[in-house]
Amino acid sequence: MHLNRDADLQQSSRNGLLLLQLLVLGMFLVFTLRFWYLQLHRGQEFAERAENNRIRQQQVYAPRGLIRDRGGVLLAVNEPAYALAIVREDSQDIPAVLRQVSEWLDLDHDQLLETFELGRLRIRRFQPQILVHSLTFEQLATIEANTMTWPELKIVTKPRRSYPQGPLLAHVIGYVAEANEQEMSADPDLTLGDSIGKKGIELTMERTLRGRKGLRQVDVDVAGRHLGTTLLVPPQAGNDVRLSIDLELQRFVDQTLGEHVGSVIVMEADTGQVLSLVSKPAFDNNLFVAGLSHADWALLRDNPAHPLQNRAIQSAYPPASVFKLVIAGAALTHQIAIPTDRVFCSGGLRLGNRLFRCWQRRGHGWMDMNQGLVQSCDVYFYTLGDKLGVDRMHPYAVESGFGLRTGIDLPHESMGLVPSRDWKRRRFNEPWHGGDNLNMSIGQGYMLTTPLQVARYTAALVNGGKLLKPQLLADAPPEVQGELPLQAGHRDFLVQTMVNTVEGSRGTARRIAKPGVRLGAKTGTAQVIRLMSEFERADLEDIPYHFRHHGWMNSFGQRDGRSYVIVAMVEHGGGGGSAAGPIIKSIYDYLFPDIQPADEPHEPG
Amino acid sequence: MSPVDRRLFTHFDWTLAGLALTLFALGVVNLYSASGFRMEEGLTLSSFYRKQLYWGIMGLGGMIAFLVFDYRHLRMLAWPLFLATVLALIATLLWGKTIMGARRWLDLGLFHFQASEFAKISLLILGAKLLSQDQGKLGWNQLLILGGIALVPALLVLKQPDLGSAITLLLILGGMIMYRGVHGAVLKVVLLVVPFLLPLGWHVLHDYQRQRILGFLDPTSDPLGAGYHIIQSQIAIGSGQMWGRGFLEGTQSQLRFLPEKHTDFALAVFGEEWGFIGCLILLLLISLFLLSIVRTAAEAKDGFGCYLAVGVFFYFFWQILINIGMVLGLMPVVGIPLPLISYGGTSTMTSFCLIGLVLSVSMRRFFFKKN
């Protein structure tokens, strides 16, 4: 594309170029003149107008929605808190103010200066910049008395979250704390100093609980004195949330679990409403609201008992014998066995050159499915597991809700683990052995479940086979997530074996029996380690704490058309029945109080 | 494509690239200062200057892509690009995302694509192709075609409604035609007809746009409405006086005034904080930046390259003229950003791409022998 520039074009383009240069020059001159006019010629006048033009807009905090229990008792409230702020623009002598403040409030001057310098780059000079959070009433009084002489100091009111029940519900409610840089850049509604939910319901229901901030216009005179306030945008309070939790029951369960480490879940079998969810040890969520000191945080984080962990949903354990119900169901569904098929238990089962023991060394003798479940005979289930194989056990367990999150409205739920051939190859680069089937069939080996998964499964057994989402919100309708892969007749049979486990003379859960209430249960002992032989016959007290087994119990209780599921997991609590049993029994006593004879009329006296 | 020639690097226009980057950096610093929060949403502006930095990095990528690409291939692509633009504009009107009452954005998943910005690029390329095809002053036929290709996108953009972009489109092509020159007779007719067209234009405008023009003619008539921006931005700039209030210390440009301080009124923040001295330096940088584009146009060895540079010149010149004029109270408020300085993803991207185009022209000027 070669173009010969002839004279005509040369000429026209020269004209054109000249035109462009003149345009730039013209623009430069006109604008320079205008800048001169505005900034120098009339600058003084504009600067004065700016001085009088002192309208300030400030955010108005919206109160966060309240959290209540199912009966309406308050579990999370907002309290007024007062902070001391400085408005730089109104100050004649900032160092003097800072000295004065540190003297009044007995604060370290250098630290105050540092706070001031940090805030300086983030807060505009006419915006209140917070120097001291959460003033005590004495401090408040001191400053209030002096704000007339120090117009740059302002008291800022900001609602602060408070949890009257503290540790009792910390795992459910979680807490709010100041939003960090990441959260602020992800959410345009957040500004420096806003509190947002960081854990628990406070986090998952953030959108509901958070209101919309309002805006007010504050008129000030040149000295920074307040002339008046107009509300431009009214704040909108957040919406309240009513939890499914029954506070009194929660308190009772908490006391019953006492000093044990572990968790308890109480759930309505037909709706999935979680009436109580306790995880111990707990922590005080109020500590987080004001900002946790480094020492306190380290204490919580490094505590070997992990108080921040919600054991009901975040801890996964071998389900142990509790899982035998699932295996029995798989055997019935896949027609591997019928309830009357019998297996002889001599105290162990030989597979290849290994002996897989039953917990009952003497052996159970002839076992059918009912007795196998009631007495929790390992050999009976080894036999089923060997016949079923992992390729049938894995999908069956997943369909029964294991290895999947329950979807409860709490963050960081664990999935648990249902092993499979593929998984083992990926994880250990090893094939699946016959022995793995046997371990899986009694819920040991690689299997891991959370207490909440067990609760969901147990509820499905007694509510007609529906896997329900465990609901923490009182107003949420039941949410069916799936069906147990089990015929109704088989399901009834499994439920009956749970009843027999409580009512039968050899049942592992006979200690929780209660007249007038239909109770069913299954116990489980999750092995911490294969016990050394010296502890095998020892009493629980003589076994060091960390070598003791975890004890499971899942149960249901029904009376008067009410149907509850309770799951308890006590870490290092010894065998299933020993620690979890009494806890569950007390809770049923609470839920189904013995029918009192009618009160005698009081004698006057 | 010719093999990579060492002269491509020796002819690289460092002045233009350096000036562009300097202006952009000033814009980001200024955005940082325009922080605070926006009235409507309580936005922390910290996210604005950060986002603008990302846009700048993406823009640099676009600039490099454009300067590596031999601009002469754009001749073939001119019509297809233009038609694609028209289709994108129609798509925007049909399925665009409405933000603050205007359908200007196409949601492309990654970001919202403002087709009107793209229209400026493709119109400029097509204009350069048509204007460089023959020589001499323009006659009626050529003028009608040129008018057509400018009016179609301009009307589509006006429907969005985006008056600022519509005006910019017409002015870019108008400027390029002026550069080429028009036959005297034609010019006389046009000058006679335009005054009669103005009332028609008045009807096309939206109510709020008319309000703004009236407010400009007499700012005091409606001090809290249309004239408010104009008064406030003059107070902000004026109060900067000689040396300005200093970085981050502007009080007027903060949230008590202008919801568009980070976009169209970015200069008001700058003027208040850096004063007359700062504004003078900024004006000087802007002028030098424009003049280095003019130099590229002068040195281009083919008509197409020359007109491309002229088009880019007008893209920047008109927007700078209108934006600064508006902030200084010399022009009515139309939503036109200050290129390279105002916050805006598509505008930043477009600016850098066009600078890349100019660099591409200047790098390849040795391909043509001087006669």
Description:
The complex is a heterodimer of chains A (605) and B (371). Chain A is an alpha+beta fold and 605 residues long. Chain A has 21 helices and 21 strands. In chain A, the strands form 7 sheets. In chain A, strands 2, 3, 4, 5 and 10 form a 5-stranded mixed sheet that branches. In chain A, strands 12-11-21-20-19 form a 5-stranded antiparallel sheet, with helices on both faces. A 3-stranded antiparallel sheet of chain A has the order 1-8-9, with no helix packed on it. The longest helix of chain A is centred in the N-terminal third of the chain and has 35 residues, at 7-41. Chain B is mainly alpha-helical. Chain B is built from 13 helices and 3 strands; from the N terminus they run H-H-H-H-E-E-E-H-H-H-H-H-H-H-H-H. Chain B has helices at 7-10, 14-33, 46-68, 74-95, 115-131, 140-158, 163-180, 184-204, 207-217, 228-238, 266-299, 303-327, 345-363; strands at 97-99, 102-107, 112-113. In chain B, strands 1-2-3 form a 3-stranded antiparallel sheet, with helices on one face. In chain B, strand 2 and strand 3 (112-113) form a beta hairpin. Chain B is globular. Residues 36-45 of chain B have low confidence and may be disordered. At the A-B interface, helix 1, helix 2 and strand 1 of A face helix 3, helix 7, helix 10, helix 11 and helix 12 of B.
- Counting DSSP E segments of at least 2 residues, the number of strands of chain B comes to 3
Given the structure, what is the number of helices of chain B?
13
Helix content of chain B: 55-70%
The average pLDDT score of chain A comes to 85
Count of DSSP strands of chain A: 21
Helical run tally of chain A = 21
Question: Helix/strand/pairing class of chain B, anyone?
Answer: mainly alpha
Compute the CA-based radius of gyration of chain A.
35 Å
| Rounded mean pLDDT score of chain B | 79
Please tell me what the overall shape of chain A is. elongated
Which residues of chain B sit in consecutive blocks of at least 5 with pLDDT less than 50? 36-45
Poorly predicted runs of chain A are 1-8, 530-540, 598-605
Q: Shape of chain B from CA axes?
A: globular
Integer-rounded radius of gyration of chain B? 21 Å
The pair of chains with the biggest contact is: A-B, 61 and 67 residues
Helix content of chain A: 25-40%
- Give the termini distance of chain A in whole angstroms: 121 Å
Structural class of chain A: alpha+beta
